[in-house]
């Protein structure tokens, strides 16, 4: 979209600050009206929940997320609607022109594509006068573009071993990096799997006077009820006792994401709209969570045979999704379609999935997919007794898995990587996986 490399040269913060200035972004307004979502897993769902709550309160709400699943426009939304093609083209031109001017006159550095997209989101939300904006981080927090939001209300949804060369080779280091998206004096809301690191995070944040609130401590989840159609739970944060909150998104892990989103909005409202009534905020949280739709997360893409996709792509992410899949749809009669991105640890992903399925179709996504034979070898190592099929093309994987599922019959679970899951759904619906354009 910007004809830029995925990553720029070194640290992006200084050059990106110059770009925001060139676009006349009001950084003070940006900070006041925004919250930032970081984490390893659950960022997209949490950001979507939070934006939906803001919209339910009646605020003009911007949402910046990545990656997109089907269309690039999905990354930039206002009130749940992706930016239209014509306006997106105009915004891209303005950002690209500003980058070119900087490089010609003052700056000899290479911008990354995500940096340009972040700047575009800032410009879009400012010019459309968004009252509330939710920014999802890319990789970390310390050096991520979202640090320039200057938000004093942020979150770390979860941490997993990912991008260790950049973020650090332990969960504690990764959690600390992502915490740095929050400015001094702010508050970070931590997901439940950060709770064991609570004391370390408190010391890390102490000198910046950053407060940490943790799901499982200051934020509690109770009275959980789940079915194949919905989930319900109670959530308490300070004076807010939110009962019988409903989610249409599947997966027990979404309770963590929803609780974080509610906390982010409540904290932001207490700062920006201290006169808002508890009942009005309660209504917004309740309505926003219930109305949130976010594709790709344990999404049913076909009923007969039942076919479910999940875009999780870290070990903890795939493990949590599998646990919820079985709780919702049962343990038995599943067939796995497994595809893993080439930049991931194929063996690690396979060992979390393969042992739970006796029939596995291994495939390769057109976009960044690991070789299907490599995936097959990893699945065989993880589960030697399983029947392993290798389908080199996604079209073959769809055809074969559907045939196998109808013959027994079985249910189909497509997991292991974002690109594999989305390509499978696209082909199943009659589209061409090659036509998808990912960043």
Automatic annotation (TrEMBL):
Pathway field: Cofactor biosynthesis; tetrahydrofolate biosynthesis; 7,8-dihydrofolate from 2-amino-4-hydroxy-6-hydroxymethyl-7,8-dihydropteridine diphosphate and 4-aminobenzoate: step 2/2; Cofactor biosynthesis; tetrahydrofolylpolyglutamate biosynthesis
GO biological process, one term: folic acid biosynthetic process
Record field: catalytic activity: (6R)-5,10-methylenetetrahydrofolyl-(gamma-L-Glu)(n) + L-glutamate + ATP = (6R)-5,10-methylenetetrahydrofolyl-(gamma-L-Glu)(n+1) + ADP + phosphate + H(+); 7,8-dihydropteroate + L-glutamate + ATP = 7,8-dihydrofolate + ADP + phosphate + H(+); (6S)-5,6,7,8-tetrahydrofolyl-(gamma-L-Glu)(n) + L-glutamate + ATP = (6S)-5,6,7,8-tetrahydrofolyl-(gamma-L-Glu)(n+1) + ADP + phosphate + H(+); 10-formyltetrahydrofolyl-(gamma-L-Glu)(n) + L-glutamate + ATP = 10-formyltetrahydrofolyl-(gamma-L-Glu)(n+1) + ADP + phosphate + H(+)
Residue span(s) of domain Mur ligase central: 37-264
Documented EC number(s): 6.3.2.12, 6.3.2.17
Statement: the UniProt record of this protein carries the keyword Magnesium: yes
Protein name: Dihydrofolate synthase/folylpolyglutamate synthase
Residue intervals of the Mur ligase C-terminal domain: 296-406
Function statement: Functions in two distinct reactions of the de novo folate biosynthetic pathway. Catalyzes the addition of a glutamate residue to dihydropteroate (7,8-dihydropteroate or H2Pte) to form dihydrofolate (7,8-dihydrofolate monoglutamate or H2Pte-Glu). Also catalyzes successive additions of L-glutamate to tetrahydrofolate or 10-formyltetrahydrofolate or 5,10-methylenetetrahydrofolate, leading to folylpolyglutamate derivatives.
Keywords recorded for this protein, A-Z: ATP-binding, Folate biosynthesis, Ligase, Magnesium, Metal-binding, Nucleotide-binding
Pfam family, one: Mur_ligase_M
GO CC, any one term: cytoplasm
Family: Belongs to the folylpolyglutamate synthase family.
Taxonomy, superkingdom: Bacteria
InterPro entries (alphabetical): Folylpolyglutamate_synth, Mur-like_cat_sf, Mur_ligase_C, Mur_ligase_C_dom_sf, Mur_ligase_cen
GO molecular function, one term: ATP binding
PANTHER family attached to this UniProt entry: DIHYDROFOLATE SYNTHETASE-RELATED (PTHR11136:SF0), FOLYLPOLYGLUTAMATE SYNTHASE-RELATED (PTHR11136)
């Amino acid at each position: 979209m910007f004809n830029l490399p995925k990553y720029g040269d070194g640290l992006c913060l200084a050059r990106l600050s110059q770009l925001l200035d060139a676009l006349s972004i009001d950084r003070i307004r940006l900070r006041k009206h925004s919250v930032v979502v970081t984490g390893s897993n659950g960022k997209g769902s949490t950001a979507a929940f939070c934006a939906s709550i803001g919209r339910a309160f009646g605020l003009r709400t911007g949402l910046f997320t990545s990656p997109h699943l089907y269309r690039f426009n999905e990354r930039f939304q206002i009130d749940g609607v992706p930016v239209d093609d014509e306006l997106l083209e105009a915004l891209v031109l303005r950002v690209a022109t500003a980058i070119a001017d900087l490089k010609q006159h003052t700056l000899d550095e290479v911008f990354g594509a995500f940096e340009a997209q972040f700047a575009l989101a800032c410009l879009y939300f400012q010019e459309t006068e968004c009252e509330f904006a939710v920014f999802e981080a890319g990789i970390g927090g310390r050096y991520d573009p979202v640090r320039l939001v200057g938000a004093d209300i942020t979150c770390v949804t979860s941490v997993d071993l990912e991008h260790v060369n950049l973020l650090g080779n332990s969960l504690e280091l990764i959690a600390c990096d992502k915490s740095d998206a929050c400015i001094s004096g702010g508050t970070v809301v931590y997901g439940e799997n950060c709770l064991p690191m609570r004391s370390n995070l408190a010391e890390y944040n102490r000198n910046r006077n950053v407060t940490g609130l943790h799901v499982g401590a200051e934020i509690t989840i109770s009275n959980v009820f789940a079915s194949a159609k919905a989930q319900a739970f109670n959530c308490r944060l300070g004076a807010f006792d939110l009962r019988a909150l409903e989610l249409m998104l599947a997966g027990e892990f979404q309770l963590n994401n929803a609780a974080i989103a509610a906390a982010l909005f409540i904290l932001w409202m207490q700062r920006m709209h201290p006169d808002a009534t508890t009942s009005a905020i309660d209504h917004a949280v309740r309505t926003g969570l219930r109305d949130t739709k976010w594709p790709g997360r344990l999404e049913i893409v076909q009923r007969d045979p039942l076919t479910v996709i999940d875009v999780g792509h870290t070990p903890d992410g795939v493990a949590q999704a599998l646990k919820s899949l079985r709780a919702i749809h049962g343990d038995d009669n599943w067939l796995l379609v497994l595809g893993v991105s080439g930049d991931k640890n194929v063996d690690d992903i396979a060992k979390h999935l393969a042992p739970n399925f006796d029939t596995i179709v291994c495939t390769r996504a057109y976009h960044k997919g690991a070789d299907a034979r490599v995936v097959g070898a990893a699945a065989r190592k993880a589960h030697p007794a399983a029947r392993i099929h290798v389908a080199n093309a996604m079209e073959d994987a769809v055809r074969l898995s559907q045939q196998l599922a109808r013959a027994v019959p079985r249910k189909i679970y497509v997991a292991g990587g974002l690109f594999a899951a989305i390509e499978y759904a696209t082909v199943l619906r009659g589209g061409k996986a090659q036509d998808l354009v990912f960043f």
